[in-house]
Every structure is written in structure tokens, then in C-alpha cells.
Design brief:
The protein is an alpha/beta fold. It is 45% helix and 12% strand. Keywords: Hydrolase.
Length: 208
């Protein structure tokens, strides 16, 4: 009689098959901000690793990260995923590759067990790591997470890269000497002048 796999074993099998397509890809070193509680970190409990959503970056979590570390007494790491924020850009980009990047970050920082706090698509990254390394994940807090999605080449070409290029062109319009509050004011003003889609885009830019 054929032995049936458990759901966890089946998921691991699927992950191992798909990962073979990416085994020759290089990981990248992720940019990270670290937050410590004002009255000292409790090193006996697991740190928190925060991951942003698509086309955002680590700065979107800065206020939440400060609050979390003070409330929980945990050290908080807020990451920029590949092709986002201050982390390196690569043509190759998928949920599986991003998970490898995060695993490298965990290993290089000797993080044996963590709590993941994720927003949107980065939930898939935490999910992949939890499947492969269940003992390294204490908890997962997933905010507004969609069903699992691997960001394949077609999705990147049609959706992700064009938006990244638009964001980069927008940022280049700013004076490097401009203060953050002035840059936000400029974006918020532009948000009042265009279509509804442009309004949402500029308001999002003002929050970064």
C-alpha cells in the first residue's frame, strides 16, 4: 500500500522540487535596521524579524518596530528584501530566492529562533522558511497576507519592475538636500493634482 504523506511532508516535497530551479542563484546581503528596547533587551526570548510588502521597504515599519521592541522587550530586525529599499537589486526575483536571502540573514546573525511579522507578499517568504525550518520559527504574525504566490519572471516583467522604475524616477526628482518633511509635503501636494490612482501612488510615496 502506498504511504500517504502528511500535509507538512507534502508541502516540503513541493518546496524541494521548486527550489531545484533556483539552486544556482546567489543570495544577497539584506539591509536591516535594528531596534532595541529603551530599558534593555531580554535576550532569553526570540527576536522579531519584520518584512515589508511589495514595493515598500523597512522604513514603513519604523514606528511599529520601536513600539514592538519596547512592549515585548525583544530586539527587532526590520529588513529590506531584495530589490527593495537599500538591499541589492537582482534580475532574478522570486519568493523562493527571497526566502533564501532571509535564511542567509538569520544564519549570519546567529538567529536560531525568531518571530516573523510580515505584511502582504512577504508572508509567503515566512511561510517557506517555517516549512523548511519549523524549529526556527516561534510565531508568525501575517498582516493582510494573500494566498501563496511565487513572483515569477512574467509577473516581475509585467508588474514589479515597471513599478520599481516609476518609483526610482519619482525619487530622482527630489533634491538630495531636501528634508524628509519637505519631500513628504511635495508628494502629498502632487497627490491632490492627479487621478485617483496617482493620488494613492503619491500618498504611498509620502509614507516611505
Amino acid at each position: 500500500m502506498e504511504k500517504k504523506l502528511t500535509l507538512h511532508q507534502n508541502n516540503l516535497y513541493i518546496v524541494s522540487i521548486v527550489k531545484k530551479n533556483f539552486q544556482l542563484m546567489d543570495t544577497v546581503e539584506l539591509s536591516c535596521d535594528v531596534y532595541e528596547p529603551d530599558d534593555g533587551t531580554n535576550f532569553e526570548i526570540s527576536p522579531i524579524v519584520m518584512m515589508h510588502g511589495l514595493l515598500w521597504n523597512k522604513f514603513v515599519f519604523r514606528n511599529v518596530a520601536r513600539g514592538l521592541c519596547n512592549e515585548t522587550k525583544r530586539r527587532v530586525y526590520s529588513l529590506d528584501l531584495r530589490n527593495h529599499g537599500e538591499s541589492p537589486f537582482r534580475e532574478e526575483c522570486s519568493s523562493f530566492l527571497m526566502a533564501e536571502d532571509v535564511k542567509r540573514f538569520l544564519d549570519e546573525n546567529s538567529l536560531k529562533k525568531v518571530v516573523f511579522v510580515t505584511h502582504s507578499f512577504s508572508s509567503s517568504i515566512a511561510y517557506l522558511i517555517a516549512l523548511e525550518r519549523p524549529d526556527s520559527v516561534e510565531k508568525m504574525v501575517m498582516i493582510d497576507n494573500p494566498p501563496f504566490n511565487d513572483f515569477n519572471d512574467h509577473f516581475n516583467r509585467e508588474s514589479v519592475f515597471p513599478q520599481l522604475e516609476i518609483q526610482n524616477r519619482l525619487l530622482k526628482t527630489l533634491d538630495p538636500k531636501m528634508k524628509l518633511k519637505d519631500a513628504k509635503a511635495k508628494f502629498l501636494n502632487l497627490a491632490t493634482l492627479g487621478t485617483k490612482g496617482q493620488e494613492c501612488f503619491y500618498k504611498k510615496a509620502a509614507m516611505i
